[in-house]
Design goal:
single chain, 143 residues, mainly alpha, Cytochrome Bc1 Complex, Chain D, domain 2, 2 domains, 4 helices
């Protein structure tokens, strides 16, 4: 790829990012309030049965992720809900979760701040967590 094409690609990506920030409008994801009383995050529908993989993922999620992403991935005042349309597979594929755990994530959809890497999780752990989150999402109409 020549230098001009790289500069053009970076410029297009920058313009697209700016447009999303400017034109996101009322449908843009908003941080969830603290989990208490009237300001509690929305309830997450739980599947009647989880797969064996998702059951393992639930345990790993509860141990490592729930402190920020909340019980049943519903979000907290310090981390976004993962049961949200912004994390649907067509927008944030499974690899996005893998990369987030391995490398951390710069805040870009939410105002919670950056997510640090989670070095205590293996790729196998992350695969089970993703299965858990995806099954929660499907139970809540997010495919």
């Amino acid at each position: 790829m020549n230098k001009g094409m790289i500069i053009a690609a970076v410029a297009v990506a920058g313009i697209a990012t700016a447009a999303l920030w400017i034109f996101a409008g009322p449908d843009a994801p908003q941080p969830q309030p603290a989990a208490s009383g009237k300001n509690a995050p929305p309830q997450v529908a739980i599947p009647s049965v989880f797969s064996d993989t998702a059951k393992m993922g639930e345990k790993a999620f509860d141990a490592v992720c729930a402190a920020c992403h909340g019980e049943n991935a519903a979000g907290t005042e310090v981390g976004p809900p993962l049961v949200h349309r912004i994390y649907e597979p067509s927008h944030h594929g499974d690899q996005a979760f893998e990369l987030a755990v391995a490398n951390g994530v710069r805040a870009h959809h939410w105002k919670f701040g950056n997510m640090p890497p989670q070095p205590g999780l293996t790729k196998a752990d992350v695969a089970t967590i993703v299965a858990y989150v995806r099954e929660l999402q499907r139970a809540n109409g997010i495919d």
